Amino acid sequence: MMTSRLRIVFFGTPDFAEASLRALAASNHEVVGVVTAPDRKAGRGQQLQACQVKEAALELDLPIAQPEKLRAPEFLDQLKRWNADLFAVVAFRMLPEVVWSMPPMGTVNVHGSLLPDFRGAAPIQHAIAAGVERTGVTSFFITRDIDTGGLLLQRSTPVTPQDTAGSVYGRLMEEGAGLMVDTADALADGPLQGVPQDQLLRGDERDAPKLFRQDGRVDWRKSPREVADFIRGMTPFPGAWTTLNGATMKIKEPRLPDAADGAPTGLIPGQCQIEGDRFWVGTAGGSLEIVQGQFAGKPFLPVIEILRGYRFPVDSLGTDGH
Q1: Which one, of 19, 179, 189, lies nearest residue 114 by Cα?
Q2: Is there a contact between 217 and 322 (Cβ–Cβ < 8 Å)?
Q3: Which of 60, 65, 134, 317 holds its CA 20 to 30 A away from the CA of 17?
């Protein structure tokens, strides 16, 4: 059976949202308008730059709105003129009720976690840092409280010990695009209420608040697995970091030792040991190998290569193990 054609206004800003916009534009539905962030100054020359969603909308020849204020009368009038059946949101700022309540079929959001777990602005980073073995994307109706509306559809993907937030981000971007089209198709075929998230709560759900640079500091007082998961979750943004002799060093590519590695024993949290071409750091309960490092203004390189010409002692990372 042919799915009914919906008129959709799309809201989004970064590349994670761009994939969903392109998928909707290629679907049976009609994207009648795109709402995205105003152009911002960026780079050394502080030139105005458009976000990824605007660039895609221009390429697809779609109408664009870039409101500074989402309650501005002229913007609300524009939304009404587009006469959409459904609003679709991916990686956009919080919408006021006057916006999300406007279309007759409601407003749906695609979120980068298996809700109700990891509600918030940084679900992928927090999920990887928590050591999950599976994550995914969820579509749900937007309501007054952020990320709490009735669930519609989900897609999941396994997380390997080698995955970082960056690699999972790329997979979920594509999964989210497909999920957005599936959700629009399902809503076009008949009204859906969504499953109340309160019915799915187990009591162990985790929040995923926005992350800042300072949140990437490694705590070597945790177990090897917890430290490794944290570093993977902070890669590439906001970046996992520690200090060496007072200087900040970003790190990535943690490796948990196996029985054949002969990892050093007895290292206290943060204590360093170099064995051949391997760099080990003590944690609570064992050693962890760190492969890549970066000092300010330099590229990521193997830690051993960075330290080859290092003129200071390499005894410990952080202060008091943190």
Answers
A1: 179
A2: yes
A3: 134
Residue labelled with tokens 């330290």: 307
Asked if 257 contacts 287 with a C-beta cutoff of 8 angstroms, the reply is yes
DSSP state of 87: E
The two tokens of residue 215 are 């949140």
pLDDT at 309: 82
Cα gap 137→171, rounded to integer Å: 10
Tell me the C-alpha distance between 15 and 106, whole Å.
24
| The two three-digit tokens of residue 316, written as one number | 């410990």
Q: For 38, how many CA atoms within 13 A lie in the half-sphere containing its CB? A: 7
User: Before 254, cis peptide (omega within 30)?
Assistant: no
Site of tokens 């952020």: 146
Residue 289: beta bridge partners?
A: 255, 280
Q: According to the model, what pLDDT value does residue 2 have?
A: 52
Listed as ranges, residues in the chain with pLDDT below 50 are: 1, 321
pLDDT the model gives residue 45: 75
H-type alpha helices, 190-251: 224-233
10 Å CB burial of residue 30 (0-12, 13-18, 19+) is middle
Domains of the chain (ranges plus CATH)?
Answer: 7-200 (3.40.50.170), 213-307 (3.10.25.10)
CB 14 within 8 A of CB 20: no
Closest listed residue to residue 156, CA positions, set 106, 118, 194, 108: 118
Can the peptide bond before residue 104 be classed as cis, meaning omega within 30 degrees of 0?
Answer: no
Left, alpha or beta for 73 (phi > 0: left; psi -120 to 50: alpha)?
Answer: alpha
SS3 65: strand
Kind of pairing between the strands at 286-295 and 278-283: antiparallel
Provide the angle, in degrees to the nearest 10, between the axes of the packed helices 15-25 and 52-59: 20
